Amino acid sequence: MFTSGPMIASLILSFTDYSIIQTTHGVGWANYHDALHDPYVRTAMRNTLIYTLISVPLHVIVALYLASLLARVGRGGGFFRTAFYLPQMSPTVVTGILYLLIFNGSFGVLNAGLRVLHIRGPFWTTDPTWVKPGLALMISVWGVGASVVIFLAALKGVPQHLYEAAAMDGASKWRRFRDVTLPMISPAIFFVVIINTIAGLQTFDQVYTAFFNQSTPYGTNASLMYAIYIFQQAFTFFKFGYASALAWILFLVIGVITAVQIVASRRFVYYEGQR
Amino acid sequence: MSSGFATPTPAQGSAQPLPAALPIAPRRRWYRPPAGGLSRIAYYTMLTFCTFLFVYPFVWAVSNSLKTRDDFFDHQTRLVPHPFQWSNYSDVFNGVEGQLYKAAFGTWIWNSLWISVLAAVTVTVSSSLVAFGFAYFRFPLRNFFFGCVLATMMLPGVVTLVPTYLLWNKLHFTGPGTFLFLSKNQYPLWAPNLFGSAFYIFLMRQFFLGIPRELFEASRMDGDNYWTMFWRIAAPLARPAMIVTFIFEFKASWTELQKAIVYLRSDKTFTVPRGLKNLLDLYGPSAGGHGDYQVIVAATVLSTLPMIIIFFLGQRYFVEGIATQGRKG
Fold first, then answer.
1. Residue A274 lies in a domain
2. For labelling, which of A272, B65, B97, B195 has a CA lying 20 to 30 Å from the CA of A133?
3. For residue range B213-242, what is the model confidence (pLDDT) as tens digits?
């Protein structure tokens, strides 16, 4: 209830030119109209969507792979599970700083490592095409720990007899994974996808740390995330009305994407005891 | 899994059926492929390699926090610093020679510490009270209100950021000054927790529902009122859920950046993340600093360390908390 008040306030604000300093007027749909024609909004939205599209599948695949490795080794997995979860404890600012230094094109250790393998690494933090994959690796893939725990719990819940039956039918390893494991853990996958999509669309901390400060309010074009743009409009330029409109657009986008995912999930997600 | 957690039973008419694939089940035999020793070794090799990649950034940070500035830029692949420059850590507190800006890192750690403890304590108490209300009492529209609480969990934080700021601004908490001995600017970082938080309310309600109602009826017979019933029966039994809430919120509060940037103005009031961001901005070459990254990295090690300690102290609670999150889906 403490949240729904501000939410409604935000909706009202989005139709005004509220800025603390000047008197406030209702401006109707002008904020929304401006947002649709603001080139920065378009850049920010594109960046955010691209980032989310890269990071979510990577996240799910890596988490699933690590979880199935852990499930295979059984009890001895505790140590490894801890190792995979540990990055979750890193404060987001620290992740942003580590990203900036490790992924640096000229002196970063990642490219130094790639050079050993005779691969010329790209300038991760400055080359527009490589900014978002790099961020996805550092933020989403490195922070895969919670999803590994969720998948591991799900994998442990798959009844052994299903595998035995499949093996009896001569199903290959891949078929057993595709036709037994995947459907049985699909609720967990669905959950991880939803949560990470929402988080991806709101990415702020790490990117803000790495690319933005008071003197560079627009950062670099390739790293301008939507949540950061809202933040700048509100707290650097004090356009609270406009920022509220932008926030509501993001809210709607998240709502639509989540709804689409839920509808799609009816086809792919299998709940036990439901026909 | 740990024994402290009873699997909560879903309430009648709870929002969604819980997916059956996820409960913390009684220990089942894990699926093991009929494999020989060789493929077992392959799994362990693969796991070790992945572990190396995941832990590497931490190792990197510790290693580079002990390098000299030249070493930092010239010898990135070298893990063992040569020579060891321990003074980087004292530089975090005392400032780097030739740098105008002297970080108040000790103050930041202190601020983060008390804010995080306060945030965690308030959210644990308030959320458990609200959750107890939802679990024990039957009142009209209960499920509707509980749905409202859950809905706030889906809200993007940025939507509420602006109006919440304006609210604090109306209350004159965004300017300088103190209120009840504490800097006004720091209130927005913990005070909203007095109203509870959706995920924790959900977590704790599920837990309370798992407590047999007879226990409460018995305590009523013993002359307990609702208040003593909560403190004598419900709270002690729900300790595992409360610990989960406490450490999750402590971590969330310790790592919080966005609100800290919005509300904290002077560097005496900064929390650790806000301070780190400041250090990065001021020491970075773009701001005219010398790029003393070895000191910044030392500061990141210092600010991550408490989280690592918390994690090892409460590892099983983290795993339980995450599993609950998964089950809710």
1. no
2. B65
3. 888 888 888 888 888 888 888 888 888 888
Number of continuous H segments (helices) and E segments (strands) in chain B: 16, 2
Q: Does B73 sit within 8 Å of A91, measured CB to CB?
A: no
Are B158 and A80 within 8 A, CB to CB? no
Task: Give, in degrees to the nearest 5, the angle at Cα B310 between B324 and B30.
Answer: 45
Q: Do A101 and B310 touch (CB under 8 A)?
A: no
| Confidence label for A6 from pLDDT (cuts 50, 70 and 90) | low
CB pairs under 8 A between A and B: 260
Look at chain A and report how many structural domains it folds into.
Answer: 1
Locate the domains of chain B by residue range.
Answer: 37-94, 105-328
Q: Which two tokens stand for residue B1?
A: 């899994």
Range picked from A48-62, A91-105, A178-192 for highest mean pLDDT = A48-62
Looking up residue A25, the CATH number of its domain turns out to be 1.10.3720.10
Q: What is the pLDDT of residue B19?
A: 42
User: Counting beta carbons within 10 angstroms of the beta carbon of residue B135, is it exposed (0 to 12), middle (13 to 18) or buried (19 or more)?
Assistant: buried
CB contact under 8 A, A215 and B326: no
Class of the CATH domain delimited by B105-328: mainly alpha
Interface of A with B in 54-93 (CB under 8 A): 66, 69-74, 76-77, 80-87, 89-93
State whether residue B76 sits within 8 Å of chain A by CB. Answer: yes
Question: ipTM exceeding 0.95?
Answer: no
A144 pLDDT above the threshold of 70: yes
